[in-house]
Predict the structure.
Amino acid sequence: MRKFLYLILLGLSMFAQAQIPSKPEVEGAVHDFAALFDKVKADELDDRLIAFADSTTNRIVVVTVNDLGGMDAAQFAYKIGEQWGVGDAKFNNGIVILLKPRTEDSSGEIYIAVGYGLEGVVPDATAALIIDREMMPYLVEGDWYGAVKAAVDKIIPMIAGEYSAEEYEAEGGSGMGLVAIIIILLVLYVLFSSKNGKSGGSSGSSNGGGRTIIFPTSSGRSSGGFSGGSFGGGGFSSGGFSGGFGGGSFGGGGAGRKF
């Protein structure tokens, strides 16, 4: 019986191994395996994150994939962080921004995984707020690059010490976020009014006409240990990452959303 259970666990481990991208040979900051970004913009973001890493030793890595291989986004992001060793082995100052786009058959998922050394700088609640305020208005429109850049624009000055998580949390939502919320509310109002008009005001539920947006917060701890399969193509990297994959450790910090 024990041997049977071991074989099952070994099989699950091998399955997960095939789903995690292998550690890139070139330690770039942007790895667009899902080919969501314009190359010029991705290279610009890659250069920016590498320059930030060189000046502060903090590492931010962006990864996009089309499939999470049955894992939730939190587990997938932590395994990338652990397996690739995002961050410095001494300071554990890595962040992984993972994005799986929404498709006809599946929800989109975003996760910001925060290394041990930065959990006090970017707490879970702050990571969730960055997703809600800065990223969701872009994500619901399918602007994947805009969402990632908006998050980076907030994370970089935060971990650089230009302002604190508390100061960010005290701020109001971004202008675009407010506009998006107003537009969404107006669209929902029009749809609801139209539905009531056709049904004569009757109440009820319908499965047609739209996709429900789900906002669960997920978190988890990575056990590491998977050596990874290979994802072909789509990556962008402009050169060395100054030890960006130096062995940083992740322990469950961060936040995520489905959209």
